[in-house]
């Protein structure tokens, strides 16, 4: 069984190797003539406004929290979908309260304005 | 065939974990934790727990790490890096580690005769796949814990909104 996952491991190794080799080659063989302009943080071409280590709004935390909750709920749908045919009507009945609570939480979140940014 | 990979992943887990707890920069520690999750996922695949391996990456490396990073970004990283750590938890941490090691040793020394192993009718390889095996018991035998989990998720979400929204509205 684990042998089937060897291609994924090879892909991970290739991806890591690509990053390590590229960064390593430019680190060891690249020439460095640093200037104040070159040392500024790269901000997609625009001049960086503030230090990137500043404090972020708590709104981001709320977004991350909601993301995790719905992420966990989505994870539960995967094994259910795989065995849906075997479980039949019972499987549907088992999932209904779960989905209703999921929809209820979405409605609550929407009405409470948690999806609004301001 | 599997043994070298097990050692590779184990060394990765231990190495990345040790690096993680010894970093002064909390962002570096968080990234090393992601690396630990990936190696852990490899061990799960070797153990035949493919679903857990995917969940480990999707949820922990993808979701929980985002939460960790946002939590780190909420505080001043610059100040945290410069602070010297005074936690005074060394004795408590060592006691917890010894207790955990004892628990792991207790389970491992009993092997498959441990009660938790016997309560399942199916073993690794008896079913077409780990996801199918999980699905066939989660929505039948363990239906009640599953539904309770959905209520718990709802409570977690409402709690997050109530706490964070109160801070935002203020």
Structural class of chain A: mainly alpha
State the separation between the terminal residues of chain A, measured CA to CA: 50 Å
CATH topology of the largest domain in chain B: Four Helix Bundle (Hemerythrin (Met), subunit A)
| CATH architectural grouping of the largest domain in chain B | Up-down Bundle
Write up what this structure looks like.
The complex is a heterodimer of chains A (118) and B (170). Chain A has 118 residues and is mostly helical. Chain A has one domain: Up-down Bundle (Methane Monooxygenase Hydroxylase, Chain G, domain 1). In chain A, 65% of the residues lie in helices and 0% in strands. Chain A is built from four helices and no strands. Chain A starts with 5 loop residues before the first helix and ends in a 6-residue tail after the last helix. With 170 residues, chain B is mostly helical. Chain B folds into two domains: 84 residues, NADH-ubiquinone/plastoquinone oxidoreductase chain 6, subunit NuoJ (Four Helix Bundle (Hemerythrin (Met), subunit A)), CATH 1.20.120.1200; 43 residues. Chain B contains eight helices and no strands. In chain B, 14% of the residues are buried. The model of chain B has no long low-confidence stretch (mean pLDDT 82). At the A-B interface, helix 2 and helix 4 of A face helix 2, helix 3, helix 7 and helix 8 of B.
């Amino acid at each position: 069984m684990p042998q089937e996952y060897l291609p994924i491991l090879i892909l991970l190794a290739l991806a890591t190797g690509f990053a390590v080799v590229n960064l390593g080659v430019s680190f060891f063989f690249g020439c460095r003539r640093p200037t104040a302009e070159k040392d500024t943080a790269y901000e997609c071409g625009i001049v960086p406004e503030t230090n990137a280590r500043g404090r972020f709004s708590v709104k981001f935390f709320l977004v991350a929290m909601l993301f995790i909750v719905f992420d966990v709920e989505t994870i539960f749908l995967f094994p259910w979908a795989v065995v849906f045919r075997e479980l039949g009507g019972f499987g549907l009945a088992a999932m209904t309260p779960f989905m209703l609570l999921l929809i209820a939480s979405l409605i609550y979140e929407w009405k409470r304005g948690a999806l609004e940014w301001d | 065939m599997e043994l070298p990979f097990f050692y590779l992943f184990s060394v990765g887990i231990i190495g990345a974990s040790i690096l993680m707890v010894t970093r002064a920069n909390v962002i570096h520690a968080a990234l090393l934790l992601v690396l630990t999750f990936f190696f852990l996922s490899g061990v799960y695949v070797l153990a035949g727990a493919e679903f857990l391996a995917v969940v480990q990456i999707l949820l922990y490396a993808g979701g929980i790490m985002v939460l960790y990073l946002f939590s780190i970004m909420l505080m001043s990283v610059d100040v945290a890096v410069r602070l010297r750590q005074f936690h005074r938890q060394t004795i408590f941490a060592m006691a917890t580690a010894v207790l955990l090691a004892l628990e792991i040793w207790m389970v491992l020394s009993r092997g498959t005769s441990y009660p938790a192993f016997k309560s399942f009718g199916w073993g690794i390889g008896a079913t077409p796949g780990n996801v199918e095996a999980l699905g066939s018991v989660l929505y039948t035998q363990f239906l009640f814990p599953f539904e309770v989990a959905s209520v718990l998720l709802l409570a977690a979400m409402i709690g997050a909104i109530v706490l964070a929204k109160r801070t935002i509205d203020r």
